[in-house]
């Protein structure tokens, strides 16, 4: 049986950690691509030398600037771009990362025309638009990683707060990846019990706030760099659902065409992930307050997309 093939673009912390997890879970042979000579090759050699200890036989190939090894990939995780530095808004990243995303997506689409693209680069929702246009892929095969990460952060905080296993927690986060994301406490549960039954409102609001600024909190602590263990795990959870055709429902950035009253916009919603990428978009009933929060989030993404069009002129 031929193993599946996953390509990771960008050999920085997120990309290298995603490559590590893909290989160690034996999900696919991995190709790691970067523009910096020696970095992807060196990291992949290091990972290959760990394989006898970790006991997996996945092939790990690193290459600088050459996309031919990505040929026929089932999945491509794009983490390329400059990271956010302290004091930098996600919008500051826009023009640089837009150019990078456009270039790498075109390279990938040429050699892996059947792949599902998982976009990780920031500003996330806007970068999905760039990849969608640059690839020419159908909308089910371009999906953004944000909701899985944001939900994991929310779940971690719920588990800490209630001193329960993270395995008992489920969290629900909608909207754009950033300050306007919409965690939904009444759909967030511990062993099936909504957290609204288990915690006072002010504790829940504090956790929602901490989830919203989860990335910035880590940037502030690290001083030089941003989160990478959880973002890599989130991308690999999505990759696994697609590679194994799990039909797993996860919150991801998807191109909406009228769902939730939103059109022509990538935004975080619950989707069913399987071998065809996004196989279904799940619409849930929202209260007026939740709907208003989601629309605010959509407006923030819309303004980023408008900024990109302006920069692109």
Largest sheet: 6 strands, parallel
| CATH evolutionary superfamily of the largest domain | Lactate dehydrogenase/glycoside hydrolase, family 4, C-terminal
How many domains in all?
Answer: 2
Number of helices: 9
Query: What CATH architecture of the largest domain do you see?
Result: Alpha-Beta Complex
Q: At the third CATH level, what is the topology name of the largest domain?
A: L-2-Hydroxyisocaproate Dehydrogenase, Chain A, domain 2
* Parts with pLDDT < 50 across at least 5 consecutive residues: none
Overall pLDDT metric: 95
Can you list the strand order of the major beta sheet?
3-2-1-4-5-6
Backbone structural class: alpha/beta
Overall shape: it is globular
CATH class of the largest domain: Alpha Beta
How many beta-strand runs? 14
* Helical content band: 40-55%
Task: Report, as a whole number of angstroms, the end-to-end distance.
Answer: 48 Å
Radius of gyration: 19 Å
Q: What string gives the helices and strands in order?
A: EHEHEEHEHEHEEEEEHHHEEEH
The oligomeric state is single chain
Strand content: 15-25%
Summarize the structure.
The chain is of the alpha/beta class and 313 residues long. It has helices at residues 13-24, 39-54, 94-111, 124-135, 147-162, 201-212, 214-222, 229-243, 288-312; strands at residues 5-9, 29-34, 60-64, 75-78, 116-119, 142-144, 169-170, 173-174, 182-183, 189-190, 193-194, 248-257, 263-274, 277-281. The protein folds into two domains: 5-144, NAD(P)-binding Rossmann-like Domain (Rossmann fold); 147-312, Alpha-Beta Complex (L-2-Hydroxyisocaproate Dehydrogenase, Chain A, domain 2), CATH 3.90.110.
């Amino acid at each position: 049986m031929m193993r599946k093939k996953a390509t990771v673009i960008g050999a920085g912390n997120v990309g290298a950690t995603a490559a590590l997890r893909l290989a160690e879970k034996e999900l696919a042979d991995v190709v790691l691509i970067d523009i910096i000579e020696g970095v992807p090759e060196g990291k992949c050699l290091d990972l290959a030398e760990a394989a006898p200890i970790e006991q997996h036989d996945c092939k790990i190939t690193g290459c600088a600037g050459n996309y031919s090894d990505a040929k026929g990939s089932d999945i491509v995780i794009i983490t390329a771009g400059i990271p956010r530095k302290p004091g930098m808004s996600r919008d500051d990243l826009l023009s640089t990362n837009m150019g990078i995303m456009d270039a790498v997506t075109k390279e990938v689409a040429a050699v892996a025309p059947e792949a599902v693209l998982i976009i990780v680069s920031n500003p996330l929702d806007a970068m999905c638009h760039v990849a969608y246009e640059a690839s020419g892929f159908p909308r089910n095969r371009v999906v953004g990683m944000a909701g899985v990460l944001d939900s994991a952060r929310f779940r971690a905080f719920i588990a800490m707060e209630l001193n329960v296993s993270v395995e008992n927690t489920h969290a629900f986060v909608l909207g754009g990846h950033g300050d306007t994301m919409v965690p939904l406490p009444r759909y967030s549960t511990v062993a099936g019990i909504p957290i609204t039954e288990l915690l006072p409102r002010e504790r829940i609001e504090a956790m929602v706030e901490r989830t919203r600024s989860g990335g910035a909190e880590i940037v502030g602590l690290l001083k030089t760099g941003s989160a990478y263990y959880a973002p890599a795990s989130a991308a690999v959870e999505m990759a696994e659902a697609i590679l194994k055709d799990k039909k797993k429902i996860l919150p991801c950035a998807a191109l909406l065409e009228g769902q939730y009253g939103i059109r022509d916009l990538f935004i975080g919603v619950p989707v069913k992930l399987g071998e065809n990428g996004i196989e279904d978009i799940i619409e849930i009933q929202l209260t007026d307050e939740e709907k208003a929060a989601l629309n605010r989030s959509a407006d923030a993404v819309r303004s980023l997309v408008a900024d990109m069009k302006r920069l692109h002129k």
